[in-house]
Design a protein that fits this description.
250 residues, 2 domains, mainly alpha, MetI-like fold
Length: 250
């Protein structure tokens, strides 16, 4: 089956799901209070567009994700370089990385709120804490997997540590680093939404929590749908950038 036919089937599944959902709600086969309906969600979307709050929520979440994504990947890359250059430091810190990575970061929410306040800073720091450790360990492992034969060859030619790092180790690890961005963006969204659940007064996470607080599932489901769309678009953008880089360097 061609890709176009597969796409048509996928679109057909989505449309069928929406129609069945609407009919089940219209004839009260499912409780509207719990599951809402596509028509009511569309009405909520129009209301949010008209009062301008929709764009505020989208912009807030997008900005928080972008800052957390860039900050987390830069810290992870810088940290991985330091750990690669100082192997003893990695041996000392490795168990602490495992502990921090396994701990639910939402448990740090109250501490971050007290320390930084109930604002975007706490949200961004929580997102960075969630995405950075995984990315740092992935990048470090990629750097450490560099072929020792090439390193030995550069040693023979008298290359400095900086030259080996810049011209051999990092380029060899770039494929893994680029692939790591896909996981990094997913973790960033998780962190931002968790942060918005706790402290935000705007954003898609806040929209979901607000809908739960006033018992309006229209807001909850709309927030989830918008979150899925935004995260998918950003993941698609990262994937295209990764593919372009791979094609350019293949």
């Amino acid at each position: 089956m061609s890709s176009k036919k597969i796409l048509l089937v996928q679109i057909g599944i989505v449309i069928s799901f929406i129609l069945v959902w609407e009919l089940l709600g219209k004839y009260k086969i499912i409780p509207i209070f719990l599951f809402s309906s596509p028509s009511k969600i569309l009405e909520t979307l129009i209301i949010l567009i008209q009062d301008g709050s929709l764009f505020l929520h989208l912009y807030t979440t997008f900005l928080e994700v972008l800052i957390s994504f860039l900050g987390g990947i830069l810290l992870a890359f810088g940290g991985a370089i330091i750990l690669y250059e100082i192997p003893l430091l990695f041996k000392i810190l490795e168990p602490f990385f495992t502990i921090i990575n396994s701990m639910p970061k939402v448990a740090l929410g109250p501490f971050l709120i007290i320390l930084f306040g109930a604002n975007k800073v706490s949200i961004i720091i929580m997102a960075v804490l969630i995405n950075m450790i995984v990315s740092l360990l992935s990048i470090y492992n990629a750097l450490s997997s560099c072929d020792y034969a090439y390193i030995k060859l550069l040693n023979i030619f008298g290359a400095t540590r900086y030259q080996k790092l810049v011209y051999l180790v990092v380029p060899q690890a770039m494929k893994t680093i680029i692939s790591c961005l896909k996981i990094h963006i997913s973790l960033t969204f998780i962190g931002v939404v968790m942060g918005e659940f706790l402290v935000s007064k705007e954003g898609l996470g806040y929209l979901i929590i607000y809908g739960m607080q006033i018992f309006k599932m229209n807001y909850v489901i709309l927030g989830i749908i918008l979150l899925v769309i935004v995260s998918w678009l950003m993941y698609l953008l990262i994937s295209k950038i990764c593919k372009k880089w791979e094609n350019k360097n293949s």
